Amino acid sequence: MKKTIAVISVLFLAIVLIISCGRKPAQEKKVDQEKQVNPNGSSELAIVMRTMMEHGKELKKSIEENQPLVPYPVEIKTLMTAQPTEGMIEDKDVYNGFATFHLATLDSIYLKNVEPKVQFNHMVKSCVDCHENYCHGPIPTIKKLYISSK
Question: Structure pTM?
Answer without folding.
Answer: 0.71
